[in-house]
Specification:
This protein is of the alpha/beta class and 356 residues long. Helices cover 43% and strands 16% of the residues. Strands 1, 2, 3, 4, 5, 6, 7, 8, 9, 10 and 11 form an eleven-stranded mixed sheet that branches. Helix 2 packs antiparallel against helix 11 and helix 6 packs across helix 14. The two termini are 31 Å apart.
Length: 356
């Protein structure tokens, strides 16, 4: 990459092109399952949909896409095939802005779709699909080794001496931003209980105390989970669904739901500009709508996501307790405020990272 230092514009264009070329995997008859690698060539179909999604959604989408293909075939007679790319949400959004021509995107947070709207790629009315644009929900949870040997019960315990903590890098990962939002928000909640009002300085200090115990910052939630499974760290801050999915596969983890944590909402959208150019708008819109159907929501629930379909959620309510102090992004002022307060160049997160 150092060969292109002379031109930032060329460097960015090439990076986006290389990312698009090397992260697309084919899914007409399944793929090789490797994130960020090239799978077998997709079979020819009447419609090809390019799906650019965040890494954590990969397993669920592996089941949902064939279900949609069968439905589309029954309704239209057309064979639809897929090309899939799974990356950290921020990385994926930047790739699409940079020229990766996805027809449909499923990202970790609304802010990443906003980047596509600002780039003129996604229409401003994208929230008319799904549950105001959202197709899955989750909460930020803590995963520990079997038996919870470090006796972790809430975010404050992550600051204890000798506790090694994992969460990914919020510069690249939408999941990491949810993690940071949850910790910072828990700090605000704690200050509110103690003083009767939100104290941003106390919340920053709370985040700093935990960040001092960070073992590594991986590029995505999936990469962070892989490191944890390899044996790195004592506690992982992650999506509840990541832990539930791994436990369902036989991995021995404990899931800790802090009393004060954040509700995660994950959006899907048609990348209208590219879909129009490819002539795939109708199929792309149908796929986004399909993600909110009972059939797809059952698959998402299988992989640990909290369904946006209230009927499906009610059927799984025993699996998804509601933390007593659960808050949403509006508690932090909404995404515009969060981006300015936490993730701007002089924001709280970068101050914590720099130790200032």
């Amino acid at each position: 990459m150092g060969l292109f230092k002379g031109s930032r514009q060329l460097h960015g264009w090439l990076a986006a092109l290389i990312l698009a070329l090397f992260t697309i995997t084919a899914a007409g008859c399944g793929n090789d399952g490797a994130e960020g690698t090239t799978g077998p060539v997709a079979p020819k179909g009447d419609v090809t949909l390019v799906v650019g999604a965040y890494s954590v959604a990969k397993d669920a989408m592996g089941e949902i896409l064939p279900l949609f293909a069968a439905k589309w075939k029954a309704e239209t007679g057309q064979t639809v095939v897929f090309q899939e790319s799974y990356e950290a949400s921020g990385t994926q959004a930047r790739a699409i802005v940079g020229g990766f021509e996805a027809d449909v995107t499923l990202l970790a947070m609304e802010g990443d779709v906003d980047k596509l709207v600002k780039a003129g790629l996604v229409n401003k009315d994208w929230k008319t699909h799904g549950a105001e644009g959202m197709v899955t929900r989750s909460v930020v949870a803590l995963g520990t080794r079997e038996g919870n040997p470090k006796n972790i019960h809430n975010f404050a315990d992550l600051a204890k001496p000798g506790v090694k903590v994992l969460y990914p890098n919020p510069k690249t990962s939408g999941g990491a931003q949810w993690d940071i939002n949850a910790i910072y928000g828990a700090g605000l909640k704690q200050s509110e209980e103690e003083t009767g009002g939100k104290d941003p300085a106390a919340a920053k200090a709370f985040l700093e105390s935990i960040h001092r115990n960070i073992e590594s910052l991986d590029k995505s939630g999936r990469a962070s989970m892989a490191a944890f499974e390899y044996g790195v760290g004592d506690v992982i801050v992650t999506y509840e669904n990541e832990l539930l999915a791994r436990i369902a596969q036989g991995v021995k983890y404990e899931v800790i739901l802090p009393e004060d944590t954040i509700l995660i909402e994950n959006p899907a959208a048609v990348v209208d500009k590219y879909a129009a150019e490819h002539g795939t708008t109708k199929a792309a819109e149908a796929l986004v709508d399909f993600m909110s159907t009972r059939e797809a929501q059952e698959v998402f629930a299988k992989y640990g996501f909290r369904p946006v379909d209230q009927t499906v959620l009610a059927e799984h309510k025993d699996r998804y307790p509601v933390p007593a102090g659960l808050f949403d992004i509006q508690y932090l002022g909404g995404w515009d405020e969060v981006r300015n307060t936490l993730y701007s160049k002089r924001g709280v997160w970068y101050q914590v990272l720099a130790g200032i």
